Amino acid sequence: MADPLKQFKIEPIVPIEIGGIDLSFTNSSMWMMIAVAVSVIFMSIATRRPAMVPNRIQAFAEGMYEFIAGMVRDNIGSKGREYFPMIFTIFVVVLLGNMLGMIPYSFTYTSHIAVTMGLALAIFLFVTILGFVKHGTHFFSLFCPAGVPWALKPLIIPIEVLSYLIRPVTLSVRLFANMMAGHLMLKVFAGFSVLMGVGLGLVPMFFNVALIAFEVLIAFLQAYVFAILSCIYLKDAIELH
């Protein structure tokens, strides 16, 4: 059976080293660029000639736009309109990373903690800076909910601070773990199909087909969860709730 972990190995395509730092263009970098190209080309085609009666591409693009706009409106409110481009970009980046990874011999860049942690830290830092810009030192009131008795504050405040600081960890690990676990299962069942031969191999093959459908659903759900949690964190920074 082929090594199921080999699909997660980052391999250099164009080796680059500057000052002892490895800056190679890797398979992960290549699939990130493919994701950028796919999103730009798709949205350009969808919005090139908008029609009153949209074709399938335009309808899909408009549906995705309305889906994210509704998510921002429901979770942040009218104040969240200016952050729509950020949430839309986050959703597309994660969704394409998950979906492109379903293509055979591709690379799932969202299955690496370095990528998901980078995205999560960028959101965390943006939200924190935004909170201080909008509220100054009053932003610290986020860690002490209104109405908490003085006797409980020494217990509540450390818990709130810890839960806030752990946000990028939970956000990144959730996405990374789901993508890695799903692809590992697909690879393992595919290996069983090969090892068990033509007859018995049909059983794990059917399981693999079901797993592929399930993994596509998980790919969308994880992009949705990543985006909606980003909306919730933004709401906290804007309204201190």
Give a quick precis of the structure.
This protein has 241 residues and is mainly alpha-helical. It has helices at residues 27-48, 56-75, 84-100, 113-135, 153-165, 167-195, 197-200, 202-239, and strands spanning 12-14, 17-18, 21-22, 25-26.
Write a structural description.
This protein is mainly α. The chain is built from 8 helices and 4 strands, in the order ββββαααααααα. It has helices at residues 27-48, 56-75, 84-100, 113-135, 153-165, 167-195, 197-200, 202-239, and strands at residues 12-14, 17-18, 21-22, 25-26. It has a two-stranded antiparallel ribbon with strand order 1-4. A two-stranded antiparallel sheet has the order 2-3. A hairpin with a 2-residue loop joins strand 2 (17-18) and strand 3. The longest helix is centred in the last third of the chain and has 38 residues, at 202-239.
Layout of strands and helices, then pairs:
Layout: E1 12-14, E2 17-18, E3 21-22, E4 25-26, H1 27-48, H2 56-75, H3 84-100, H4 113-135, H5 153-165, H6 167-195, H7 197-200, H8 202-239
Antiparallel strand pairs: 1-4, 2-3
Helix pairs in contact: 1-2, 1-3, 2-3, 3-8, 4-6, 4-8, 6-8
